[in-house]
Amino acid sequence: MRYYIIAGEASGDLHGSNLIRSIRDLDQDNQIWAWGGEKMEAAGAMLRKHYKDLAFMGFVEVIRHLPTILRNITFCKKDIADFNPDALILIDYPGFNMRIAKWAKEEGIPVYYYISPQIWAWKEKRGYALKASVRKMLCILPFEPDFYLRFGMEVVYVGHPLLDVIPAYQAEPVELPEDKPLILLMPGSRRQEIERMLPLQLLIVKQFPDHRFVIAGVPHQPETLYSGLIHQAGLPESEVPVITGRTYDLLSQAKGAVVTSGTATLETALFGVPLIVVYKGSPLSYQIARRLIRVKYISLVNLILDAPVVPELIQGDCTAGSMVSSLRKMMRSGSAWLEQVRELKQRLGGVGASHRAAEAICEDVQNKTKKSQP
Predict the structure, then answer these.
(1) 123-134: b or e for each residue (b if 16 or more CB lie within 10 Å)?
(2) CATH architecture of 182-347
(3) For 261-274, how does the pLDDT look when each residue is reduced to its tens digit (9 = 90+)?
(4) Whether the Cβ atoms of residue 116 and residue 144 lie closer than 8 Å to each other
(5) What pLDDT sits at residue 9?
(6) Dist. CA 148–CA 130, nearest whole Å
(7) Cα separation of 314 and 45, whole Å?
(8) Separation between Cα atoms, residue 109 and residue 84, nearest integer Å
């Protein structure tokens, strides 16, 4: 069977790679084209476009890059049509993927959505559009099935794929120049969010003289991006080294973390690392988001536990003072924090999410193919 998969960011590349491995285990006669990154390519997909060319964040930023986005949509439709897949699998990235889903439905291509878009946070009415274009919704968060069932969608709860990845991860120790407790700065994966969040995170470095700070870099961003921001903060690079492509190794050693809102908040918590969640957007984007977002929390940890377990420092609250005091409090939380981590893992379900998702897709595609044969 032929599968076309679209992931638009680093977390989608990770989950897409594990999904690809599971599909290849279940369907030996597979061809897979994908938008994603190095992980999906290494898993066996033919990479058609890298997510680094797709990652635009914020309302204002999206409008500014609209011509590029429209060109990507045009290319994507043609590429899918040329490949003529048996299944189109979409991973999160709703602004782009929902447009492709509508078009694919009109073209008669079965659409499966894995890592569902977070429309439950804002624009709930998009559920009707998903119902009209998506054949099967594969949910990874425990509260999502009830939400999508309200729209009459066919839903499969597969559990969270991070529970496949993190417990099985074999960490390799990162050698650091000083034997001090490690605090990890995680500014995000998109250039725009790194440029906005890293300068804020660097403000706290001098306030923890007994700790070693490290920035978790991402491979698709140039080293000069990080080094330039470190120099602007008046810090030597040796004081805040950037270690690229080893985030999980670093998390296995970290005693605390400052994390830009996103999937990384959940990853950090599942490693048991005390964290604070930070986010600051452009003033206009933030004002628009405030009027649209309908959930109580921005971090997945708090959303899943339905409680303010990790501090969320957003926009005006994201100051050096608030980051320092909140991080110190979290790093002192000890057994209370670890109990919250155990509860988080329990609510996310057991291992096997990637396999369950691949199984649901492959079985449905094969059954559909059999029914269409004379």
Answers:
(1) beeebebbeebb
(2) 3-Layer(aba) Sandwich (3.40)
(3) 888 999 999 999 99
(4) yes
(5) 86
(6) 9
(7) 37
(8) 8
pLDDT tens, position by position, 170-220: 999 999 877 899 999 999 988 889 999 999 999 999 999 999 999 999 988
Domains 2-161+351-372 and 182-347 share a fold: yes
Q: What superfamily does domain 2-161+351-372 belong to in CATH?
A: Glycogen Phosphorylase B; (3.40.50.2000)
pLDDT band at 75 (very low <50, low <70, confident <90, very high): very high
**Per-residue pLDDT at 178:** 78
- Name residues whose C-beta falls within 8 Å of residue 269's C-beta, 6 or more positions apart in sequence: 275, 301, 310, 341, 344
Determine the number of helices (DSSP H) and then strands (DSSP E) in the chain. 17, 13
Show me where the domains of the chain are located: 2-161+351-372, 182-347
Give residue 115's identity as a one-letter amino acid code.
I
Tokens read off for 161: 């794929």
In one letter, which amino acid is 209?
P
Hey, what amino acid is at 170? Q
The span from the CA of 172 to the CA of 174, in Å, is 6
Q: Is the pLDDT of residue 289 over 90?
A: no
Cα–Cα distance list, 113 to 104, 136, 248, 298 (Å): 12, 7, 27, 22
Q: Is the pLDDT of residue 91 over 80?
A: yes
In the structure encoding, which two tokens stand for residue 135, read together?
């054949």
| Residue 276, helix vs strand vs coil | strand
